[in-house]
Amino acid sequence: MPERLSGILPSVLSVLLALAVCWGLIALTLAPDTAANAYLQMLWGGIGNWPSYLEGAAATVLTRPLGESGMKAALLTLTGLSVAVAFKVGLFNIGAQGQMILGALAAALVGAHLSLPAVLHVPAALLAAALAGAAWAGLAALLKLYRGVHEVISTIMLNWVAVSLVDNWLVIGPLRGVAEGGQSITGTAEIQATAALPRLLGDVSRLNLGFLLALFLAVAVWVWLQRTRSGFETRAVGLGAEAARTAGIPVARRTGLAMALAGALAGLAGAVLVLGTERRYPGTLGAPYGFDGIAIALIGNNHPLGAAVAALFFGVLRAGGTRMQLLGVHQTFPELIQGLALLFVAGRMVWLALLRRRTAATPAPANAAPPTEAPRA
Amino acid sequence: MLEVLHALLFSTLDAAPALVFAALGAVLSERAGVVSVGVEGMMRVGAFCAAVAALVMPTPLAILMGMLAGAALAAIHGFLTIRWRSDQVVSGIALNLVALAGGTFLLESLYGPNGTPPIQQLSRWDVPGLSSVPVLGALSGHSAATYLALALPFAFQFLLARTPLGLRLRAVGDKPHAVATLGLSVAGLRWGAVLGGGLLAGLGGAVLSTAVLDRFEQHTPAGLGFMALAAMVFGRWTPVGAFLAALFFAFGNALRIGLVSSAPGLLELIPQGMLLALPYVLTLTLLTLQGQRSSAPAALGTPYEQESR
């Protein structure tokens, strides 16, 4: 089996299996024909209701769902990239959630309290978010490099520190916004119009510049990893730190910078959420996008473009989830599909063993176990 | 003053068992070398199954169902990480995500958004003669779960430190090849530890919905599994250490809730969010100070391969 195929096939099969299992779950707990109906609603809610458009409905039946999908996909792409970049250097970034919270808060503050022309305001808010996320991730990297603290434990702890300090104190306390009438509101003050990410299609959907930013960054990260010296060195560290050190690669610097980049990407996810749709730091982020990033990165086989594809797919499902609500299926149902897909992807070895048995008739190559870039936790 | 202390101790002991059991489960699994990030998911599944089972059967039996549910999730973890040597953190995170979304789906489609109907709570026991003693009286009037949580850590510590089985469990987490050299099964020992950890985490969740609350709520256990991990790290991967850390965190929580209701003025000075962050900040600080001398099992997170050295 070609190496590229053995990278992609387990992910595709896992997603299909997850879709099938979840179908069965709805059929068992609700009613058999509800399952088909719910999946159809999810599809129309994600890619737009094409049947009714072809029957003459307004174009908004397409643009609104597609906008929601693009918005969700942008967030998932960014957190997925964050986790994937950390994997490449051999670290498991469970802290994307905390880094995203810090990024969202930084973007909300810069967006609300600085007065700048739009050409400067948006980049300033994005930069602040990236720096905040990078700082939060950098903390974990420093602990790892200088004190040997395992990043899985430290990023889990940093997540909860971020949730406690931001959601349970700053946003409901010192940084709470005040509405025009004088009564306080949920979340921070609204950002100024100059800091909002421009909508791509005007008022017909919430699709905004964040979507293009996420896709651009996916390509940029891929080019960086594949085509530049520092990207190559980063991957070398991830494949074997000792060998990389022997080859003269500055292991500590590559590790620290990759983790900071991971944090910056997660921070940007927070900025896209705040500047693109929420317009303020809401009471909570609404969904565990940071943990979703782990699923997206691994379903995308730790490849930046793979993560983007996985994010687009699950962005469509997640946006469609709200339509399933009409049939008594909770709107977080697509998250279950995503979680199961991750679980099945975790069994990559099982898939490869099954696939190898299928192809056993043909002469097997000498190195039967294909090199996987699984992280060393 | 004594009354305040009494009330604080009472609510600490009332709420602590869930955290203690989950932390012990994490210790058991990790001492055998298998990372247990999935403890939150196992708690959630245990809490859900116990709450649903308690609607149709006596509560103690329902708790057993919760434990089995936790072990079932742990079995998936074991299948992926021991049998197929998958990444232990990935598997744990996946189980958390599945338990989170799956629990919400089942709860909403079976019972609606307000959680399961209320169930019969675990009965409370009075220790004769103790309830009238000041402060110590806080030990009386809890459910069986509390008394089990007070005894189990010491039994577990004895097992781990003083028995052949305990030595093997520790060895399989520190140097699995040595265990294999003695002709013992690395996979078998790890399976036992992972399933036992699942039973304990499931028990923690079950206790949460049958003794602390009286139902399964949408957000149960709301991060308690991660706090159990913090207690495990804080207790240096020992049962009694994790138990003391869990008690300490539970006491901090009781203090915080007590402050909210009795002295809101104090919370103006020390915001609740800071108090909530405290267990995690303390754990991070401890790890920073310990540095490389951290007491984590040496082979933690490394899948066992016979040929590797």
From TrEMBL, chain A:
Q: Which residues cross the membrane?
A: 73-94, 101-120, 126-146, 207-225, 257-277, 289-316
Q: Cite the GO molecular-function annotations of the record.
A: transmembrane transporter activity
For membrane topology, the record states: Multi-pass membrane protein
Cell compartment(s), UniProt: Cell membrane
Q: Spell out the GO cellular component terms annotated for this protein, sorted alphabetically and separated by semicolons.
A: plasma membrane
Keywords, alphabetical: Cell membrane, Membrane, Transmembrane, Transmembrane helix
Name it.
Answer: ABC transporter permease
Q: Which organism is it from?
A: Pyxidicoccus fallax
From TrEMBL, chain B:
GO terms for cellular component: plasma membrane
Q: Where in the cell is it found?
A: Cell membrane
Q: Show the InterPro entries listed in the entry.
A: ABC_transp_permease
Which portions of this protein are annotated as coiled-coil regions? none
Per its record, what are the GO molecular function terms? Answer: transmembrane transporter activity
Alphabetical keyword list: Cell membrane, Membrane, Transmembrane, Transmembrane helix
Q: Has keyword Transmembrane helix?
A: yes
Ranges annotated as spanning the membrane: 32-56, 63-84, 90-112, 133-160, 191-213, 225-249
Q: Which domain of life is it from?
A: Bacteria
Q: Does the keyword Magnesium apply?
A: no
UniProt membrane topology term: Multi-pass membrane protein
From the Swiss-Prot or TrEMBL record, give the protein name: ABC transporter permease
**What is the native source organism of this protein?**
Pyxidicoccus fallax
